[in-house]
Amino acid sequence: MLGTDLAGVGAEVLAAALGTEEWVRVQERFARWFADQRATSYARDLLDTGKAGAGPPEPLQAVWAPRLRATLVHAADKNAAARQLRELIRALAPLTEEHPGPAPAGYLVEEPAPGPVPYLLEQAEPGPAPEAATHAMPAPRPQVGAPVAGDHVDFRQADIHGPVIGVQIQHTYGARPPIGLPGPEEWPAATALEPLAHGARPARRMKGCPPLPPYVTRDADEALLAALASAAADGGLVVVLGEPFAGKSRTALAILAAALPTARVYAPDAGADLRGLPDLLRGAAEHPVLWLDDLDSHLGDGGLEPRLLARLAGLGTVVLATLREDAYEEYRQTPRGRVLDLAQLVELPREWTDAERARAAASKDPRLTEAAGLAGAEGLAAHLAVEPRLWADFRRAGRKHPRGQALVRAAVDLARCGLRGPLPQDLLVEVAESYGPSDGAETVEEALEWAARERYGVLPLLRRVGPRAWAAAGPLVGAARYDEDYPPVDGALWQRALDVARTGEGHDAELVTTLAGVAFERAVNAGDRKAMYRLGLLEESQGHRQEAESWFLRAAEAGVPEAAGHVGRLLAERGEGRDAEPFLEQAAEAGDGRAATLLGRLLRDRAAKWLEAGAAQEDPEAAHLLADLLMTSSGADRLWDLYHTASAAGRTEVARSIGMWLLVWNHRIAGQAWLRRAADAGDEEAAHMLEYADRPWPLEEALSYFAPSDIYPLDRAHYGAVLEAAGRTDEARDHYREGYERGDSYAAYRLAALLEKQGSQDEARTWYRKAAGLGHPAALKALGEPPAGPDTVKE
Length: 795
Known about the structure:
Blueprint: H1 3-17, H2 23-36, H3 40-48, H4 57-73, H5 78-98, E1 123-124, E2 132-133, E3 152-153, E4 172-173, H6 221-234, E5 236-242, H7 248-259, E6 265-266, H8 277-281, E7 289-292, H9 306-314, E8 318-324, H10 325-331, E9 343-347, H11 354-361, H12 366-374, H13 379-395, H14 402-416, E10 423-424, H15 425-434, H16 444-451, E11 462-466, E12 469-472, H17 474-482, H18 491-503, H19 509-525, H20 530-541, H21 545-557, H22 561-573, H23 577-589, H24 593-616, H25 620-630, H26 636-648, H27 654-664, H28 668-680, H29 684-693, H30 699-705, H31 715-725, H32 729-741, H33 745-757, H34 761-773, H35 777-782
Parallel strand pairs: 1-4, 5-8, 5-9, 6-7, 7-8
Antiparallel strand pairs: 2-3, 10-12, 11-12
């Protein structure tokens, strides 16, 4: 039974009960039904009705029919509300028959109408016409035909010449116009239909934008326009056919409004009885439209079938419906689906063409322009419709699937950074772990399996795009940008995305760079000091040296150690060492090892400069310190002059330095003499050195010291050198080879030199080439090739 029929019937039962002894009972039962549907104001109004005496029935029916109708429409569970109201009417209608009140004006029957008569309660299978009830007829007329028990009159056998007043409660046999259903003149026009109330799915809500984006012309629109024009001329059924979320309802309603803007449209609830519509539409002034969204819910008993469609078409009715492809395949071979053979089918693909995408991209609605770029094979309509659902699924997943949620978040955030190509699984795992621990969570494999499940028959949260590569569903990327509660991408992840874009394949590095610049500037404006440093790195990567230095300087002055180190290095490279020192020191104190090294070198060079100045003025301490500083970088004559100057001036501390220097030059006896001088003067370190200076180092002790291990791979070459010095050349060659296999160029060089001594020139040259390949300068010299200069060798 149609919901609107129920409302009309319920109002008639109320009107019939008013003024009878059953009124209070009927009144209370209806009030309780209103209260159950949370229409408490209607319940209170109804309980107040009739307190001052019975009023005329017609106003009561006119008031309560729309109230019942509105309550049915807005009920939380429409089916349950309709079922309860139907049961209530069935229970109370006999009471109004037994205790008739003043008859509603609509119940005056002067003559039985030809054909079927209106029904009140329910439809039944065709059969013999029932008896109609009459009550308290004034000026009774003789009955013609056999009377039945009680005060009922069989209209089929009665010759009635006067008014018959009473409440008519009867079953219908055949099609009946629904009582209480507003006529076509009260139906909304096609242009007044609200898409969200008639089958279109909601998109993401945005401030300043309507609930739905504007309609985008589809390539199938012309075919649908032609089908509607044909149906408007001759009546008939037009079905928009497509996959779920293809945009069928939105397209059908938009083209209906364009083709038949003034047509009146009736949109019944699913499962509604449609058999009474032809009688209701007879004589309609303009082509009416019957809108059946999800046609499969309007097939079957009381629904659309070939005979009903023929009657509607004969009245010029346009029946416009939508249908999923799977439902079409299911019903077209069944008796219920025979009406599909009479339909004009217009197919609407879910995937959008390039032309359709271009039209969407030209829209001023940001949801459409964004979807035009993000939507995949699912199409823009599906993208917009499933976006709120997918986003809600993702946001709620943290408790049951923390690792799965983190992996999806990683893919979404990397996509927000502009990485639109395949994302390696290892990268997703790395980024997901940076969000925090996932204690007790599922394994990575379980998390990915959960995220890759297709949802709503359209999309998963994560799409597999390779053996170990993934991509976030496009709707999630769009939703993340506009959810104010969703955390922004942090600077470290932006930096990681930039690295991936520059070194990986399939990504638009220019896009990532542009987006990163916008994000960093926004962060700077929000007070993020480190974002200044990141902007500097970004400008530097693009060759914008001045802009980069400006951002580095601002960040360093704001206290960002990384920026201070960067500024210090830039200044040092330009020879502005003094200006670089405070920045390098700031970075070094924060743990920047490179800055500390550069600062030490600058300070060493400055120290050498000023020690040179002091030594030039014959300051013995300056001469001593300068000689120590230059021990490994100056010739013997220069060092001896400096040490002699210091010692001649009586600086006793210089004795240890001279002794060490002489030992380095293999002047063992002289070196020991100077160390003894220092030791006798109380220098404990010199005494310790003197203890070992004259001590022989046995072969076995040397071999033990250089015993090969994986911890010190360079010692294999040293071990071989000791063996070679001891004449054990075969063993030495084996250790040289092992050292080379561990990447030691010196081991290859030693082996080449040994082979050359043994007369194996060709084999020696092979090993010189191997050593040269690892960058050993002596090997390059042996081959007659110049060693790499400082401009070509990294520090």
